[in-house]
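Tokens in:
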């Protein structure tokens, strides 16, 4: 009798040690998988960092992209993202690293902001590509990371209008890829870290 009770106790301990909580089981994902299932319906304080432009050729896009991301995040119907003024106390951190920026065809110096959109708008197309990441700040865990690209027709648009249109397209594509209910496979190779925690 005692042997049976002992074996039963051992089995319970083993099962308890190997069991995976529901959230952790669903959270083991590729870093490009949608966050819809984990974040839907939650109220999350979100800090959106100023985009980084290592090349120095997309400086005129930094502010439009930042504003577009803030707008897209704060107007989601299925999520309740509250935009934070600083990372302190925020639940999520969104970072943007601009990798490529093409104002249009032809030889144009991207560092020369004056009239640049007026020049390339005659060519008709503009594109931007960035690596955007979403991090759980409380646990310093990467939740999502992928390359996001946007291209749009800017022919005939003034400088500010063209920048805003391209930034809005990039932000919209990010929302679709990161928070879409339908799983979207990303472009970054490899498996991401296991994600655990309240978010």
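Residues out:
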């Amino acid at each position: 009798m005692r042997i049976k009770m002992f074996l039963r106790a051992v089995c319970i301990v083993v099962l308890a040690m190997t069991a995976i909580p529901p959230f952790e089981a669903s959270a083991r994902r590729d870093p490009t998988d949608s966050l819809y299932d984990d974040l839907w319906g939650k109220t999350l304080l979100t800090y959106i960092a100023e985009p980084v432009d290592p090349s120095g050729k997309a400086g005129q896009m930094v502010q439009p992209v930042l504003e577009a991301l803030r707008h897209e995040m704060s107007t989601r119907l299925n999520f309740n993202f509250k935009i934070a003024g600083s990372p302190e106390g925020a639940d999520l951190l969104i970072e943007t690293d601009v990798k490529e920026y093409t104002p249009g065809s032809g030889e144009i110096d991207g560092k020369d902001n004056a009239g640049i959109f007026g020049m390339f708008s005659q060519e008709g197309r503009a594109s931007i590509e960035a690596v955007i990441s979403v991090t759980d700040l409380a646990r310093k865990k990467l939740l999502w990371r992928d390359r996001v690209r946007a291209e749009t027709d800017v022919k005939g648009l003034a400088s500010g209008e063209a920048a805003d249109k391209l930034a809005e397209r990039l932000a919209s594509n990010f929302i679709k890829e990161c928070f879409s209910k339908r799983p979207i496979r990303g472009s970054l190779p490899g498996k991401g870290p296991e994600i655990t925690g309240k978010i």
